[in-house]
Specification:
single chain, 284 residues, alpha/beta, Rossmann fold, 2 domains, seven-stranded mixed β-sheet, 8 helices, 35% helix
């Protein structure tokens, strides 16, 4: 006997047109009530399983390093900071068609065996592709300030059976990553959302190994419109001691890719000596 997709105790017991006696109707009412209770119990059990799974993922997600320098030691940005509105920028199929991940990997010379930080990982578009690229010996650190994004990304990587991804919760002024842990870091379409860019960049530097590169992808738009003018980006990174290596135009609507080398940790300037850059667009 083939059962319907949704189990209905009444349909299994009484035909659609069968006449019922009074005792039969009473039994039918009891079956209906029982069916509703079973449905409610199944729904509750499903919610409990989902909640338990979420708790298990959340338990594995936290800060990977002690806090760095406090935000109040740094100047605030003299331009708007865009709100975090979504864990993804656009459809992954569109980004794949533009070879976004491939372009970044080639410019930064990402290879198997490296440890790469996906800063502001969101839904994990780059995390997933980097995982395959650096395998089997390499790893990806998916970092974000939004715990829920990391929980969803942990589910995604488990479904894909990716075992070389580590998750790192950060703060708006501090990525909270271990010292000398990254061969490269990418910040893709998220720089304009960093609430404390000078503090964040300063606290990111110790996590980068000698010779590491930082690749920042953004649009040539005001920060209030979810982009970062390249001159403003150069100014802010230079203020913290980063050095520009090169800038590339990405295909289609991908924006630009700016590559920087981090400051030497021993020679970094004091946070109090950092001077905030003015927004060339003049928007507030």
């Amino acid at each position: 006997m083939e059962l319907p997709a949704t189990l209905n105790l009444v349909d299994l017991t009484v035909g659609a047109h069968q006449e019922l006696t009074k005792p039969g109707r009473l039994r039918l009412d009891r079956l209906r009530k029982l069916g509703r209770r079973v449905t409610a119990l199944v729904y509750a059990a499903t919610l409990l399983v989902a909640f338990a799974a979420a708790c298990a993922y959340a338990a594995d997600i936290g800060y990977l390093a002690p806090p760095g320098v406090a935000a109040n030691e740094f100047p605030s940005p003299q331009r708007p900071v865009a709100r975090i509105v979504s864990p993804r920028r656009s459809a992954e199929e569109h980004r794949d068609a533009l070879d976004e991940a491939g372009q970044i990997a080639r410019v930064l010379e990402l290879k198997p065996g490296m440890t790469v930080g996906d800063i502001g990982a969101g839904s994990g578009y780059h995390t997933v592709r980097l995982s395959y690229l650096v395998a089997p010996a390499g790893s990806v650190v998916a970092q974000d300030v939004t715990r829920d994004y990391l929980i969803e990304l942990a589910r995604r990587t488990k479904l894909l059976k990716l075992t070389n991804v580590q998750f790192a919760l950060g703060e708006p002024h501090d990525p909270r990553l271990p010292a000398s842990s990254l061969d490269a870091a990418i910040l893709v379409h998220m720089y304009h959302e960093i609430a404390q860019p000078y503090a964040f960049l300063y606290n990111l530097a110790p996590a980068l190994k000698q010779g590491a590169r930082v690749g920042i992808v953004d649009l040539e738009l005001p920060t209030s419109k979810h982009g970062t003018p390249i001159e403003l980006l150069r100014c802010e990174l230079t203020a913290v001691g980063y050095r520009e290596v090169a800038t590339y135009k990405l295909a289609g609507d991908g924006g630009y890719l700016a590559v920087f080398s981090p400051p030497e940790v021993a020679g970094r300037k004091s946070p109090r000596d950092i001077v905030a850059c003015r927004d060339p667009a003049g928007t507030r």
